[in-house]
TrEMBL record:
<feature type="domain" description="Polysaccharide chain length determinant N-terminal">
    <location>
        <begin position="14"/>
        <end position="91"/>
    </location>
</feature>
<protein>
    <submittedName>
        <fullName>Polysaccharide biosynthesis tyrosine autokinase</fullName>
    </submittedName>
</protein>
<keyword id="KW-0472">Membrane</keyword>
<dbReference type="InterPro" id="IPR050445">
    <property type="entry name" value="Bact_polysacc_biosynth/exp"/>
</dbReference>
<keyword id="KW-1003">Cell membrane</keyword>
<dbReference type="InterPro" id="IPR003856">
    <property type="entry name" value="LPS_length_determ_N"/>
</dbReference>
<dbReference type="InterPro" id="IPR027417">
    <property type="entry name" value="P-loop_NTPase"/>
</dbReference>
<dbReference type="Pfam" id="PF02706">
    <property type="entry name" value="Wzz"/>
</dbReference>
<keyword id="KW-1133">Transmembrane helix</keyword>
<keyword id="KW-0175">Coiled coil</keyword>
<feature type="transmembrane region" description="Helical">
    <location>
        <begin position="20"/>
        <end position="38"/>
    </location>
</feature>
<comment type="similarity">
    <text>Belongs to the CpsC/CapA family.</text>
</comment>
<feature type="coiled-coil region">
    <location>
        <begin position="155"/>
        <end position="213"/>
    </location>
</feature>
<keyword id="KW-0812">Transmembrane</keyword>
């Protein structure tokens, strides 16, 4: 038996194939949501400009920076999105407030370059281009202001020093004017004045150099102007649809798996293997139609299925093993259909077979399928009304197949272990195989009792009708006895006209029908058995009254 742990990729494919409509529907719904999102999303355009960043006097090399060079471009990228730059860009665009613009701008640094790629997103191509231009210019202007500020501070410091020196020069000249040519100390004062004049000239030259540097500062330039975007970057229909499919398909697969695991009814052969731990001996495809209440023909699709079932069953039984019990899970004709077709397939193969109707509760049993009389039958023999040989009837069109109906004393005397063992022993001596149609396990323990005296057990399961829990419980019940459980036969959920027959629970609806009189009852001529006063009197069935016997059994 293959357990759930031995699941293969093909099993998952079967699960997907069962729920293909669920997977496809979920994927289609996700794609529809992607299309709706694409249609409802506003269009967004993006324009990009490339700015070459040049080092200035105020730049210092940062150790461990991502880019080589004197300028730390990661810092400069953050500077583009700073409040000062955003306010300047907002003023240029006439937008307010500036904080809304920061979320629209993005800056990237291409590897191993001194370039900043500044992008701006907006609702129209023109706004995107203008926003990129405004941020690029505002950034360069801010960088220029920062670079020239330090030079202007140096120029201011030099000018203050120059004014001090000039004041000292003026003081020295005034003192020289008040001294005569022969006064002592005049030569020293003249020497100091020359030094001060040289110092002033040096400072003036330094200021001139600083002013030249300030005018020559270049913080960078735009090397690729912002272009007018031709198509929106968002919404991206292909990306949205791919993302929707990427979400919808896995979700559909998960729903299909959940549907498989949470299913309450048996639907497919894999359910019997995975959920009930049953081998599947045969499965009648849903395409096989049950046209009327009779067994399949030898060369029909259903007939081929049961011929293969016969071969499987015969291969697993020895020459001394002859009794096969077919039990259903829930009330219905499933067990009778399997038992009748299996017995017929064995008879076609040349075996002598006796089909026993041990399920009196079904409305479509072996007598209805074979066209034989339900009485006298098994219950009559068990109650002692008749001999077992009297209950055996020849099946039409099958010389090697005999049928025993349920009998009319089913409600008065049920099966006993001794009676079942004796009956099966007698029938096994008369033929090669004995196929027993047993009551359903969900409402009777008789099938377990009968199976205890059989050589093999087969469960008949009807798709979309029998519950997985009840099927698993039936399998456990059969494994609790020593008789081997060969497996299960899965029938379609629709069994044609047999589904229109009332279930056993509906027999109470027949109580209002007129009852047959004693003269009309085909069993009113039987002599009572002396030691069975508790049972009703069952007459011997006259061979000339098959129609009346059929009329006595509600259909």
């Amino acid at each position: 038996m293959r357990t759930p742990a031995a699941r293969t990729l093909a099993d998952y494919g079967v699960i997907v194939r069962r729920s293909w409509w669920l997977v496809a529907g979920t994927a289609a719904a996700a794609l529809a949501a992607g299309v709706a999102y694409t249609e409802m999303s506003p269009e967004v355009y993006e324009s990009t400009a490339s700015v070459l960043v040049l080092p200035t006097a105020g730049d210092t090399e940062v150790q461990g920076a991502r880019t080589a060079g004197q300028v730390n471009l990661d810092t400069e990228a953050q500077l583009v999105k700073s409040t000062e730059v955003a306010e300047a860009a907002a003023a240029a665009l006439g937008a307010d407030p500036a904080a809304d613009l920061v979320s629209q701008v993005s800056v990237t640094v291409p590897p191993n370059t001194a370039v900043l790629e500044i992008s701006f997103k907006a609702g129209t191509p023109k706004q995107a281009q203008e926003g990129t231009l405004a941020f690029s210019e505002a950034y360069l202007a801010h960088r220029l202001t920062g670079a020239t500020a330090s030079i202007e501070r140096e120029i201011g410091t030099a000018n203050v020093e120059l004014e001090t020196v000039k004041a000292e020069i003026d003081a020295a000249e005034d003192r020289l004017d008040g001294m005569g040519d022969g006064d002592g100390g005049r030569s020293g004062l003249e020497s100091d004045l020359e030094d001060l004049q040289a110092q002033a000239a040096e400072i003036e030259a330094s200021v001139a150099g600083l002013q030249a540097r300030a005018q020559a500062v270049s913080p960078g330039r735009v090397i690729n102007q912002a272009s007018l975007p031709q198509a929106p970057i968002s919404p991206n229909a292909m990306f949205n649809l791919a993302a929707a499919a990427g979400v919808g398909l896995p979700l559909g697969l998960m729903l299909a798996w959940a549907r498989h695991r949470l299913a309450r009814k048996v639907s497919y052969p894999a359910d019997l293997v995975d959920r009930c731990e049953l081998d599947v001996l045969a499965s009648v495809p849903p395409a096989v139609k049950f046209q009327r209440r009779e067994v399949f023909g030898a060369y029909s699709p259903g007939g081929r299925v049961f011929s293969q079932l016969r071969n499987v069953v015969a291969s697993q039984l020895t020459a001394d093993q002859r009794v096969i019990v077919v039990a259903g899970v829930a009330p219905g004709p499933a067990a009778s259909v399997v038992a009748a077709n299996l017995a017929t397939a064995m008879a076609r193969a040349g075996d002598r077979v006796t089909a026993v109707a041990a399920n009196p509760s079904t409305t479509v049993g072996l007598p209805e399928l074979f066209g034989t009389d339900p009485v006298p039958g098994l219950a009559d023999a068990w109650s002692g009304r008749i001999d077992l040989a009297t209950a055996v009837q020849a099946a039409p069109r099958q010389p090697s197949l005999s049928v025993i109906g349920p009998g009319a004393a089913a409600r008065a005397a049920g099966p006993t272990s001794e009676a079942a063992a004796e009956t099966f022993a007698k029938l096994a001596e008369a033929g090669r195989f004995v196929v027993v149609d047993a009551p359903p396990l969900s409402c009777s323990a008789d099938a377990q009792l009968l199976a205890g005296h059989a050589d093999a057990v087969i469960l008949a399961v009807q798709s979309q009708r029998d519950a997985i829990a009840e099927t698993a419980a039936a399998a456990v019940a059969m494994r609790q006895i020593d008789t081997p459980l060969l497996g299960a036969v899965l029938l379609p959920g629709v069994l044609g006209p047999m589904n229109t027959v009332p279930l056993p629970t509906a027999r109470r609806e027949l109580a209002s029908r007129p009852m047959l009189t004693a003269d009309e009852t085909p069993t009113d001529s039987l002599e009572p058995v002396e030691d069975a006063a508790a049972t009703e009197v069952i007459p011997v069935v006259d061979a000339a009254a098959p129609s009346a016997a059929s009329a006595a059994e509600p259909r």
